[in-house]
Amino acid sequence: MADCVEILADLVRCPSVNPMGRALSGPEYLEGRVTEYLLNRLSKVGITAVRQHVSPGRENVVAVLPATRSNSPVLLWDAHQDTVPVDRMTIQPFSPTIKNGQLFGRGACDVKGGMASMVAALEDLSTFEARQASVIFVASVNEEFGFSGAKAFTTLLEMCGCESDEGAEELIQSVLSGLPDMVVVAEPTGLHLVTQHKGAVRWRMTVHGQACHSSNPEKGLNAIYSASRVALVLESLAQKISLRDTSHPCGAPTLSVGTIHGGMGVNLVPDRVVLEIDRRLVPGEDPL
């Protein structure tokens, strides 16, 4: 049997940090190392896997393990390659450590643990003489910020991918003529079966002011002061929203201010502040 812990440790050693929309570069950013690892590992055990180009330096991995009989159901397994950043981590993020039966490292939970389980299962299934279902495995990119990998993969399911996706499209068409019979997403859920989740809407709000030198702040209009008042209003709105429809299985809807950026220097009155707002919705709810 494939060693799931070994696979997970290998994946943690492959940095795949999502820059989260920031203009950052370096050896730890983007998913290329995980992409290469998956393609090499799957090919060694005879599982057909190909790349799907998403954007420069970012490629989905699409693999297919066909059933051994015709007219079999098709299962789609999904796990994302990227992780959130490593800022303020107190352990070495890319050196997997096992302690008290748990493996620690960036992405071990979200979601390289789930990915390792899927890869191990694929490898074990590939040795079976009889398989009652086909499996499409997709390791998507950029899940943590923008979902561009998942969006690109859905174009294959709709059979409208671009010319560079022909290999992935043909591979999927070899086992699938419509939509998959079941989809399993490897997000961490505490091993509970989760069949639904909240929707998400996000906004970027810009608060404008008037810049001037800090020696005469009365000549300007401080955008940070204005933005702070906006943040307090949003906090009050978030509290009201959290009281709506608390009986839903997904819990109550939410609103959160996630980032706030403003100011060029301590000796300048800022003329611009940007807030980013996250809104989670339950079914039937108007995001506004």
Chain-wise SSE layout:
Blueprint: H1 4-12, H2 32-44, E1 48-55, E2 58-65, E3 74-80, E4 97-99, E5 102-104, H3 108-125, E6 134-140, H4 148-157, H5 166-173, E7 182-185, E8 199-208, E9 212-213, H6 223-241, E10 254-262, E11 268-269, E12 272-281
Parallel strand pairs: 3-6, 3-7
Antiparallel strand pairs: 1-2, 2-6, 4-5, 8-12, 9-11, 10-12
Helix pairs in contact: 1-3
Describe this structure in words.
With 288 residues, the protein is α+β, with helices and mostly antiparallel strands. The protein has 2 domains: 4-185, 3-Layer(aba) Sandwich (Aminopeptidase), CATH 3.40.630.10; 199-281, Alpha-Beta Plaits (2-Layer Sandwich). It is built from 6 helices and 12 strands. The strands form 4 sheets. The protein has a 5-stranded mixed beta sheet, sandwiched between helices. Strands 8-12-10 form a 3-stranded antiparallel beta sheet, with helices on one face. The chain has a two-stranded antiparallel ribbon with strand order 4-5. The termini are far apart.
Characteristics of this structure?
alpha+beta, Aminopeptidase, 12 strands, 288 residues
Global shape: elongated
Major sheet details: 5 strands, mixed
CATH domain fold name of the largest domain = Aminopeptidase
**Can you say what the CATH homologous superfamily of the largest domain is?**
Zn peptidases
- The CATH architecture of the largest domain would be 3-Layer(aba) Sandwich
What is the domain tally?
2
Q: Please identify the structural class as seen in this structure.
A: alpha+beta
> What value does the Rg take, in angstroms?
23 Å
- Alpha carbon gap, first and last residue: 50 Å
Number of helices: 6
